[in-house]
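Ticket #4471: structure output looks truncated?

Reporter: J.K.
Steps to reproduce: submitted the chain below (533 residues) through the standard prediction queue, then opened the result file.
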Amino acid sequence: MRSPPRLRVVLLVVNLAILLLPLGGVALLRLHETTLLRQTESELIAQAAFVRAAYRLKLGEVLRERGVDPATYGAAIDPAFLPGDVEIQPILPQLDRAADPILPSAPDPPAAAEAADGAAQVAGAAVTEVLLDAKRTTLAGMRIVDPKGTIVGTSRGELGLSLADREEVRRALRGEPVRVMRARISDEPSPPLESISRGTRVRVFVALPVIEGDRVWGAVLMSRTPVDAGKALYEIRGYLITAAVAVLLVVLLVSLFTSFTIVRPVQALIAQSARVTRGERGAARELESPVTHEVAQLSRAIAEMAAALEQRAAYIDTFASNVSHEFKTPLTSIRGTVELLRDHLDEMTEGERSRFLENLEADAERLGRLVGRLLELARADVVRPRGEASEAAEVIEAQVSRARAGGLEVAVEVEEGLGQARVGREVLESILHNLLDNARQHGGQGVQVALSARRVGGVGEALIEIEVRDNGPGISPANLARVFDRFFTTARSSGGSGLGLSIVKALIEAHRGEIALESDGGGTTIRVRLPAN
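Returned output as attached by the reporter:
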């Protein structure tokens, strides 16, 4: 089964999705703005290329008519800008508002220091009509300068002024194609949305050199304000509304995903907890679809906790019922004896009074034994290893001597150098006492017990194995599966409480030991293994 993702991964994905929505919008807006800028740059390059071609052809005619050698006209091109391929000379748009500098606003051109070249003036005048007509459609500013930077053709009425100090013109007159952005400052109020520029704060300038062979005959300068991003967005507002709806759907999907992965499983756990609180049995179960790793862990923990609580509640119910039953018999006997003594004490003989008093004493002793056993069982349930150790041979010898003093016949065989058991002395004494007492109660009159102890090798550690065998009638198969159940006994008449083996099992398991029981018609064998130092 594939492990569900962790909750922090789900939250990270959700937060990233929420973060990427505005970042993606900003990135798309920036991309769209750059696209608009380069679209304007590309259009200006194309327009400048056509104007340059027309001007070069016209200037060539004028030079030939005047007998001027074209190879000597203008200025020599900078070798760094000589075209590598005379057939193909592409100029690709490359302006980026985020990366390229924005130059100051273009100043008004001053008057030229000297008159423009005559041939250039004639050629420029011939092309000016074309520039004026094209401007009505392209809305671009168009200028043609001679090799000295003086305007000889324009769509703006600036003939005779000089652009020689402009950076883009100066570089173009060396033979370099130039594209720059300049700040656009306007004192006019913000135009309406229908405006072409919509108040864009930059203006694109493209300067292409007019080259013939290895000579620069002048330059063509084109400029235009690109379409504002706001204007462009206004024009595609229908698509933007669609995109906004799509983003809203994404947000709703993210919310539904968060609800599915976090809220829904948590609500299911809350509902289970409420049912457990009301006392419903089996109400808490592991969620079939916890979605995340942490919710799966929480669901498993709640189910295990509820199962443990139900088990504990069932145990308490059974324990209370058994305790009530065990106490009820002697208490009933004591109550009946007391009533008889109170009502007929004067009529009883001395023997009868003695017999009833002995019954009271026996029942009181039985209650005392039950209370002692219950306290011992309670301690066994909560006992935890504390790193104590005891000499196993010494404890065995002491308990065997005590059993023999009580009339039990015990044969002992202890391996030499048995060593220490990794349990406290009191715990080991309780285990041995209960095992020998169990053999005495269930073996019947004249039972004989054989106790042996030896050191054996366990898995990864040494163990002390203690075996108690009796020659009693044994345990029936039906009772064999219940011998460790609390309050189960077949020797109640001889003082059995049904708690001895339960106490032994709890003590042994608390100290990481093992207990096993075998029985047939020839007796019963109980084998205990405890960790050895």
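Triage note (M.O.): checked the attachment and the full token line is present. The chain has a mean pLDDT of 79.
Status: closed, working as intended.
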